[in-house]
C-alpha cells in the first residue's frame, strides 16, 4: 500500500532525476505524469499510483517547495476537472492512454460542448444530432457558452442519437476533434468586453465510434459525472485564507482607512466569515471525495461560490465609491482563462454576474440540493415519458 513516505520518496527521486531549474517545463511535467505523481489516486500508467487521493497534498507540497512548475490549471481546468474524470470512468483503455497524458501536461486544451440555444438549464432538451454511419458518427448542431473553444484541441460533447426516446434516454457522449473542418467557433462578447465564451457550429463533423464514452443512449448518465465534477471544480477549488474574491477587498480595507465606515465594516466582517466557512466546507468536501465520486454536495458549494462572489464584488464597488465605477479596459480580447483577481473591482463586479449561470444555474442547483441532498419531492414533470421529437419547442 502506497503511503505518505512512499510518495515523498518518489517525489524526491523525480526532483533528483529532473531538477526543475535545469529541466524544460513540459519535459518535467511529462516525467511527473510518468512517475505517477500527476494525480496519485489515478491508476498506475495513467498518471497515478492507485493511492489514496489525500496523498496528493504531500506530493504538491514537496514540488512547490522545490520550485517545480505546475501545469497551469486555470488554463486547462475543463480538461482537468471535467474531461479527465469522465474519460477515466467511461473511456476505453486506448482512449485513456491517448488523452490523459497530454491533457494533464497541458499540451492539449479541452472545452465542453453541452449547452445549446434551446437547452441551457434544461440541458436534456438538446437537439444536436449524431447519426451513425459505419464506424463514425456524423454530428450536426449548435452549442453555446463554450469556454475556451477558441483555444481547445478537443471537446467533450453530448448529442442526440435517438429522438424517439424521452429526452434523457436518447443522448450519447463523445470526444470531438475541434480541428475538424466542420467545427466553426464564433466569439461571444460579454459584459466585461472579453469573449472567453463562444458559440460553436457543427456541420457534418465525423467522430469515430472509438471516441464514444459510455454506451449508446447513456450519455446523460455519463454527463452526470462531468457535471458533478464541474460543480466541485468551480465551487470547491482549494484556496488559502482570504483567497478568491474576499482577498482584494480585505486588502483595500486595510490599506485605505479613509474608505471605512461602520456599516461597511459590519458587512465586510459578515462576508469574510461566510467566505472562510465556504473555504473550509470546500476542504471538507475534497476530503470526502478522497473516498469516492463527487455527489450532489458540489452543487451546494457552487451555489455558495456564486452568491458570495456577487455579494463581495458588489460591496467592493461600494467601498471604492467613485473609483468603483471606473473600468480598466473594454478592449475586445479572447482570454485563455478567467482571472478574477488580476483585474480591477469593476471587472470582478461584472464578471461575477455570470457565476450564477455558468456550471449550472443557481435555480437548477437549488433543485438538485432540494431533491438529492434534502430528499424533498421532485417538481411535477409532464415530459418524463414523452419522446424528444414530440416535445414542444
**Sequence of strands across the biggest β-sheet:** 1-4-5-8
Range of strand content: 5-15%
Shape: globular
How many strands, what sense, and barrel or not for the largest sheet?
Answer: 4 strands, mixed
What's the total number of strands?
8
State the helix count.
11
Rounded to the nearest angstrom, the radius of gyration is: 22 Å
Q: Find the structural class using helix and strand composition.
A: alpha+beta
Helix content: 40-55%
List segments where confidence is low: pLDDT < 50 over at least 5 consecutive residues. Answer: none
* Elements, N to C (H/E): HHHHHEEEEEEEEHHHHHH
Mean pLDDT: 92
State the end-to-end CA separation.
55 Å
What this model shows, in words?
Helix content is 40%, strand content 13%. It has 393 residues and is an alpha+beta fold. The mean pLDDT is 92. The protein contains eleven helices and eight strands. The protein has helices at 4-17, 25-34, 56-65, 77-90, 93-105, 219-235, 246-255, 262-289, 297-320, 345-351, 362-373; strands at 110-113, 129-133, 136-143, 154-160, 171-177, 183-188, 197-208, 212-213. It has a four-stranded mixed β-sheet. It has a four-stranded antiparallel β-sheet with strand order 2-3-7-6, with no helix packed on it. A hairpin with an 8-residue loop joins strand 6 (183-188) and strand 7. The radius of gyration is 22 Å and the shape is globular.
Amino acid at each position: 500500500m502506497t503511503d505518505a513516505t512512499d510518495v515523498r520518496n518518489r517525489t524526491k527521486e523525480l526532483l533528483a532525476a529532473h531538477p526543475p531549474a535545469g529541466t524544460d517545463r513540459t519535459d518535467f511535467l511529462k516525467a511527473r505524469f510518468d512517475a505517477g505523481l500527476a494525480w496519485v489516486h489515478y491508476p498506475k500508467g495513467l498518471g497515478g499510483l492507485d493511492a489514496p487521493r489525500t496523498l496528493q497534498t504531500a506530493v504538491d507540497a514537496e514540488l512547490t517547495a522545490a520550485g517545480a512548475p505546475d501545469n497551469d490549471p486555470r488554463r486547462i481546468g475543463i480538461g482537468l476537472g471535467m474531461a479527465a474524470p469522465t474519460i477515466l470512468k467511461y473511456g476505453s483503455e486506448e482512449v485513456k492512454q491517448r488523452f490523459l497524458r497530454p491533457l494533464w501536461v497541458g499540451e492539449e486544451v479541452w472545452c465542453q460542448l453541452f449547452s445549446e440555444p434551446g437547452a441551457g438549464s434544461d440541458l436534456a432538451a438538446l437537439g444536436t444530432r449524431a447519426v451513425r454511419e459505419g464506424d463514425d458518427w456524423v454530428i450536426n448542431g449548435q452549442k453555446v457558452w463554450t469556454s475556451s473553444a477558441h483555444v481547445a484541441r478537443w471537446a467533450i460533447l453530448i448529442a442526440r442519437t435517438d429522438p424517439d426516446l424521452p429526452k434523457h434516454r436518447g443522448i450519447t457522449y463523445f470526444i470531438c476533434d475541434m480541428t475538424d473542418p466542420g467545427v466553426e467557433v464564433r466569439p461571444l462578447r460579454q459584459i466585461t468586453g472579453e469573449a472567453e465564451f463562444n458559440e460553436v457550429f457543427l456541420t457534418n463533423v465525423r467522430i469515430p465510434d472509438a471516441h464514444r464514452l459510455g454506451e449508446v443512449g447513456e450519455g446523460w448518465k455519463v454527463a452526470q459525472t462531468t457535471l458533478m465534477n464541474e460543480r466541485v471544480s468551480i465551487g470547491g477549488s482549494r484556496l488559502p485564507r482570504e483567497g478568491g474574491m474576499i482577498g482584494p477587498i480585505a486588502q483595500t480595507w486595510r490599506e485605505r482607512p479613509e474608505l471605512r465606515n461602520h456599516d461597511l465594516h459590519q458587512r465586510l466582517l459578515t462576508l469574510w466569515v461566510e467566505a472562510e466557512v465556504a473555504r473550509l466546507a470546500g476542504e471538507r468536501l475534497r476530503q470526502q471525495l478522497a473516498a469516492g465520486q463527487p455527489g450532489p454536495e458540489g452543487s451546494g458549494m457552487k451555489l455558495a461560490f456564486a452568491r458570495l462572489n456577487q455579494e463581495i464584488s458588489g460591496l467592493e464597488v461600494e467601498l471604492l465609491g467613485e473609483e468603483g465605477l471606473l473600468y480598466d479596459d473594454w478592449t475586445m480580447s479572447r482570454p485563455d482563462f478567467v482571472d478574477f483577481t488580476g483585474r480591477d473591482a469593476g471587472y470582478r463586479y461584472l464578471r461575477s454576474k455570470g457565476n450564477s449561470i455558468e456550471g449550472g444555474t443557481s435555480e437548477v442547483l437549488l433543485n438538485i440540493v432540494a431533491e438529492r441532498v434534502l430528499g424533498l419531492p421532485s417538481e411535477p414533470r409532464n415530459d418524463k415519458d414523452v419522446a424528444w421529437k414530440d416535445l414542444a419547442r
